[in-house]
Hints:
Elements: H1 6-22, H2 27-41, H3 46-57, H4 60-82, H5 84-95, H6 99-110, H7 119-128, H8 137-148, H9 159-168, H10 172-179, H11 182-193, H12 212-243, H13 251-276, H14 290-311, H15 314-325, H16 329-344, H17 347-361, H18 370-387, H19 392-401, H20 405-434
Helix pairs in contact: 1-2, 2-14, 3-14, 4-13, 4-14, 5-6, 5-12, 6-7, 6-8, 7-8, 7-19, 8-19, 8-20, 9-17, 11-20, 12-13, 14-17, 15-17, 16-17, 16-18, 17-18, 18-20
Amino acid sequence: MQSIPALVQVAVVFVLVVIASARKIHLGLAAALGGFVLALWRGMLPLAAVRTAFAEVINPDTVLLVLLMACIMAFSTAMKKSGAMAAFSSSLAALAPSPRIAMALAPMLIGTLPVPGGAILSAPLVDAMDPERTRSAAVLAAANYWFRHSLELAWPLYPAFILTSSLTGLSAGRLMALNFYAMPVLLTAGLLFILPPLRLVSAAVPGPRVAFGPRLRAFASGFAPLALVLGTYILLDRLWSTVSPSLGLAPALSALISRFGPIYMGIAVGSLKVALSPTGSGAFRNSIGLATLKLIAVIVGIRVFSVLLGAVGIADAVSGELAAAGIPTLVAVAVLPLVAGLITGVGFGYVGLAFPIVLGLVPAGGSFPREAAVVLGGAFGYAGMMLSPLHVCMVVTSEHFGVGLAATIRRFALPLGVFVAVAMGYVSLLAFVLV
């Protein structure tokens, strides 16, 4: 069976996973089954495959990862239920110097909460900021969708970011630093090409003006839980980096604490702030719903998929075949996440399906820096996800503004192309610096 090229085997399993997902089979289940099919196809014994998968499911890293997902989703839900995010968004609109800036910042800052389909939360705000319809519905839809995801590559609360950190072994701080370029590029491209200045647009944000002091206090109050999450995380991450070498802990345990400890504490402090707020009573009640459980199952399935691919050496085999065929490795590093993003429409989809192979194609210590490859794969995976008609946020945004998906895509295709071009230039520079 192993006489069949690994590239063909991966392609077949990839197509099967896509077909299964398209037929409404849970992505996590489809990925796990795809991993088993590929492992058995590559000659792994069934019992060995089951043991490998089970070991990954009970792996402390996996357990802490899924619990973190649950905590983040509970925090996001509580922020919404307590009214903190609504107060934050409305005060932001009042503070913004123009409706154009408010249209960008509102979905971007609501995007700090990784709620599935969360673009529907910001769509009414963007809609209300242009009551005279000085911009078309397609432009408003594209703006809401674009800015909603402008933080995704570098924001530590997103499932795709956390999964990337887990699979690559990069700390959250390191991954944020590597991908930080994306945020200003996406924000600037969106303002230039989706929301260019209009002469007829009033400089004032629609709605009654309130004194600056109350507006600033409302903004600070709404942002406080998120600020506490990030502030606590950054402080404890730096503190742990300083003290951990002197503690003499086993490297695996130290890495586990470094990866999860600061962000867990950050979520705990932010959650306490929400719970103690005047409107926070009961905000965490029923905050773990079916959507969260489905997300956890996806994460587990992807981890199983990843460990089985690693166990049968699929990445090394694919790398050798690409080299023999004369296909540059970096082409595969870019194309695989792009395709995975297109066919799954979610960030953790392109990370979970493509990155196990991508990481094998660019081993640590190789001729091309692995960190640069991670950034390249992330940029192309992000582009595929943004273009995917399966992306829930694009669907709900287009429905809210009453426009077709094609019209929405046309409005952000140019800035997305600009982002990809900048990303490739940045990766080239990064590779030069890291060599």
